[in-house]
Specification:
Number of helices of chain A: 0
Oligomer: heterodimer
Distance between the termini of chain B: 41 Å
Helix content of chain B: under 10%
Largest sheet of chain A: 7 strands, mixed
Distance between the termini of chain A: 37 Å
Strand content of chain B: over 45%
Number of strands of chain A: 11
Number of helices of chain B: 0
Structural class of chain B: mainly beta
Largest interface: A-B, 27 and 25 residues
Strand content of chain A: over 45%
Radius of gyration of chain A: 13 Å
Order of helices and strands of chain A: EEEEEEEEEEE
Shape of chain A: globular
Chain lengths: 112, 112
């Protein structure tokens, strides 16, 4: 079966712009989580959605937001981009249980 | 603030060597401990999920143990092969949360 698909794979944006990243989970999975990895840091939790509702949120500024659609696809938006937002953004999908997560390959965002 | 520590940060071994890494996590409010294998430019691949103190899991030449009372898990690789070269991540999950708290990983390089 198809895995978790993240688009685009690479993105270059200018400081001050906004960006939207997309994540299509495994068919049947209703939970999507987002993580950020910056150089030298571990994966940091951004937020998690289940059936279109945000259930958990990490310690990120309000410029980071997300949503989930009825088909479980999720988008993450970052407004007013800063240089420090340059990172690899990963999403993971789950059927809703907490013991199995499948990750996508990520979107690498570069802010210049 | 939940903190997950992994050691060593990186490791170079020769083909055929056996090796092990450590993951330390908070011993309170434990729910699960995940291990992932992450090759460059690919998505993190789930290796093990462990939930019970004393759990031991094995997959081929890779095995893991869990001690929730003292807050550590070991990952062992027996007879390392070049294809084992990757970053190995552990992630701690607290009760009542969908959030995975990741360590920074151990980067393993196996030289032929």
């Amino acid at each position: 079966k198809a895995g978790v698909t993240q688009t685009p794979r690479y993105l270059i944006k200018t400081r001050g712009q906004q960006v939207t990243l997309s994540c299509s989970p495994i068919s049947g999975h209703r939970s999507v989580s987002w993580y950020q990895q910056t150089p030298g840091q571990g994966l940091q939790f951004l937020f998690e959605y289940f059936s279109e509702t945000q259930r958990n949120k990490g310690n990120f500024p309000g410029r980071f937001s997300g949503r989930q659609f009825s088909n479980s696809r999720s988008e993450m938006n970052v407004s007013t981009l800063e240089l420090g937002d340059s990172a690899l953004y990963l999403c993971a999908s789950s059927s809703g249980g907490r013991l199995s997560y499948t990750f996508g390959s990520g979107t690498r965002l570069t802010v210049v | 603030i939940l903190n997950v520590e992994q050691s060593p940060q990186s490791l170079h071994v020769q083909e055929g060597d056996s090796t092990n890494f450590t993951c330390s996590f908070p011993s309170s409010n434990f729910y699960a401990l995940h291990w992932y294998r992450w090759e460059t430019a690919k998505s993190p691949e789930a290796l093990f999920v462990m939930t019970l103190n004393g759990d031991e899991k094995k997959k081929g030449r890779i095995s893991a143990t869990l001690n929730t009372k003292e807050g550590y898990s070991y990952l062992y690789i027996k007879g390392s092969q070049p294809e084992d070269s990757a970053t190995y991540l552990c992630a701690f999950m607290v009760g009542g949360s969908e959030k995975l708290v990741f360590g920074k990983g151990t980067k393993l390089t196996v030289n032929p």
